[in-house]
Amino acid sequence: MENKNIVIACDHAGFDYKNDLIKYLEAKGYNMTDVGTYSPESCDYPIPVHRLCEKITSDECPRGILICGTGIGVSIAANKHPGIRAALCGDKYSAEMTRQHNNANVLCMGARVISFELACEITDIFLATPALDEERHRRRVKMIEDLEKGVFDEANYN
Fold first, then answer.
1. Which of 41, 65, 108, 155 has its CA 20 to 30 A from that of 100?
2. 122-154, pLDDT tens digit by residue?
3. What domains can be seen in the chain, in order of their start residue?
4. Which residue in 12, 50, 101, 137 is the catalytic one?
5. Is 68 an active-site residue?
């Protein structure tokens, strides 16, 4: 059975999208954990990003959604956390491929870049797509994990 616990966070630019996406996903039966920000006032996005990443790496939630103006800042900050594979998606194909090929566990989107309707479609695909259906993709994710740990040795993969 699919784990329907999803953690979500944003900065001030993504505040409205975050709140609307929570309503949208709760109506679909997802259990949403909102870790901020909680107002449209300017904020430092690494703080809610860190909260979200902690929920994922502690196994409280299997996947998360981050929203800022472009999706770039939250993506960069999230990917600094070991065990996080955050993907900035502005189209449906990328959302599907990042799950299948990268086993991405965090979806990043830009509220100033895509429509809310497209954000919902991207989210649906990201949450519905299974991960890692082929050995080559599992091997590549393992390489990414080795990079995070500082134990990447190219000779081990040839």
1. 155
2. 999 999 998 867 888 888 889 988 888 989 989
3. 5-133 (3.40.1400.10)
4. 101
5. yes
